[in-house]
């Protein structure tokens, strides 16, 4: 019996977004039904529902992420108050990012994507919004945790550095508009801290 | 600072607990009933076909799996992985079955719905 191939683009979307890897039984069911004579339009509808269901789950995660960001923002404000109260640095220091300053927008986008991605992994242990395995071209089975650990270390180190820097800037006043980009990168990645706390304290 | 970190964590825990105690949804009941009717060899394809046959409406396999995963988290169903086959691109089937807790949940839902339905003239006799 020859195997009918489902619509290539629909199958590619399900694979790239991680759904078929996360749930191989679902992928097998879709293929099995397609072999019985279902139409390509049927396969597209099924693929759309899989993606839509995943998007709903992501919306819940996004809400939790934003709440975690709000908690991080509160921590930032409290830190800034403490610095102001004790009259710490009067002048905003140079962030010291050197050549990285030229790529601040790219850093911002990476910080948002990685921060949300790692948050999702740490909290839910489920499929990432963007497949880190593909992003870092990891090919070994079970190697997913390595790029994730590397990403989380990068993001948290970067966020911690920016946290300290921006808390000082809040008190001493911004030296340039660039500061607000770093500030946003910190706020968005600080959502990871509650996630790490929960992971470390999980039973 | 610690309070700002801990509060969201405990908030998330409360949300999780609330979700576990919630009522079964309409689609979840249908999936559970289809599972009970099919018995031991129920997986995604026959479950969705059973619901389609009884309801007269198409069902998305993704929605069936989403409901099954939610119910597995709640302890209402369990699953086991079968053997891969060539027709499925080398992917195994995942068989589901209802647990004792799932059966109790369905019975409770049935009791509640029958009570709510009874005594409504518009619904008696199956007339629209």
Structural account:
The complex is a heterodimer of chains A (203) and B (128). Chain A has 203 residues and is an all-alpha fold. The radius of gyration of chain A is 22 Å and the shape is elongated. In chain A, helix 1 (8-16) runs parallel beside helix 4 (40-85) and helix 5 (104-124) runs parallel beside helix 8. Chain A is 72% helix and 0% strand. Chain B is of the alpha+beta class and 128 residues long. Chain B is 59% helix and 13% strand. In chain B, strand 1 and strand 2 (91-98) form a beta hairpin. Chain B starts with a helix and ends in an 11-residue tail after the last helix. The model of chain B is unreliable at 1-20 (pLDDT under 50). The interface between A and B is medium-sized, with 37 and 30 residues.
Order of helices and strands of chain B: HHHHEEH
Assembly type of the chains comes to heterodimer
Per the principal axes of the C-alpha atoms, what is the gross shape of chain B?
globular
* Rg value of chain B: 19 Å
Strand order, largest beta sheet of chain B: 1-2
Termini gap of chain B: 60 Å
Mean pLDDT score of chain B: 80
Largest sheet of chain B: 2 strands, antiparallel
Strand content of chain B: 5-15%
Number of helices of chain B: 5
What is the CA–CA distance across the termini of chain A?
Answer: 50 Å
Please supply descriptive tags for the structure shown above.
heterodimer, A: 203 residues, B: 128 residues, alpha+beta, two-stranded antiparallel ribbon
Question: What is the fold's blueprint, element by element?
Answer:
The complex is a heterodimer of chains A (203) and B (128).
Chain A: H1 8-16, H2 19-22, H3 24-35, H4 40-85, H5 104-124, H6 132-135, H7 145-172, H8 178-189, H9 192-201
Helix pairs in contact in A: 1-4, 4-7, 4-9, 5-7, 5-8, 5-9, 7-8
Chain B: H1 2-20, H2 26-38, H3 44-55, H4 61-74, E1 77-85, E2 91-98, H5 100-117
């Amino acid at each position: 019996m020859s195997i009918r191939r489902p619509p290539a683009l629909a199958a590619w979307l399900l694979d790239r977004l991680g759904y078929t890897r996360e749930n191989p039984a679902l992928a097998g069911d879709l293929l099995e039904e397609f072999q019985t004579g279902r139409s390509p339009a049927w396969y597209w509808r099924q693929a759309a529902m899989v993606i839509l269901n995943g998007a709903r789950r992501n919306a819940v995660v996004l809400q939790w992420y934003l709440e975690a960001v709000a908690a991080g923002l509160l921590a930032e404000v409290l830190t800034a108050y403490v610095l102001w109260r004790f009259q710490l640095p009067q002048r905003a220091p140079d962030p010291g990012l050197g050549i990285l300053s030229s790529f601040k927008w790219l850093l911002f986008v990476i910080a948002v994507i990685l921060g949300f991605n790692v948050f999702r992994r740490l909290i839910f242990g489920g499929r990432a919004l963007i497949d880190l395995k593909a992003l870092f071209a990891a090919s070994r089975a079970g190697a997913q945790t390595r790029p994730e650990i590397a990403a989380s270390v990068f993001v948290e180190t970067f966020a911690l550095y920016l946290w300290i820097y921006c808390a000082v800037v809040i008190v001493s006043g911004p030296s340039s508009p660039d500061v607000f980009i770093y500030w946003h990168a910190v706020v968005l990645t600080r959502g990871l801290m509650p996630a790490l706390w929960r992971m470390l304290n999980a039973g | 600072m610690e309070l700002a970190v801990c509060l969201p964590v405990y908030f998330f825990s409360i949300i999780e607990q609330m979700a576990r105690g919630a009522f079964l949804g309409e689609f979840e009941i249908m999936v559970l009933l289809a599972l009970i009717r099919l018995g031991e060899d129920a997986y995604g394809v026959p479950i969705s076909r059973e619901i389609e046959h009884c309801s007269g409406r198409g069902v998305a396999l993704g929605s069936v799996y989403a409901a099954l995963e939610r119910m597995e988290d709640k302890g209402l169903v369990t699953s086991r992985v079968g053997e891969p086959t060539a027709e499925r691109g080398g992917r195994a089937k995942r068989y589901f079955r209802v647990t004792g807790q799932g059966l109790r949940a369905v019975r409770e839902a049935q009791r509640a719905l029958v009570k709510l339905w009874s005594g409504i003239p518009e619904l008696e006799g199956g007339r629209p």
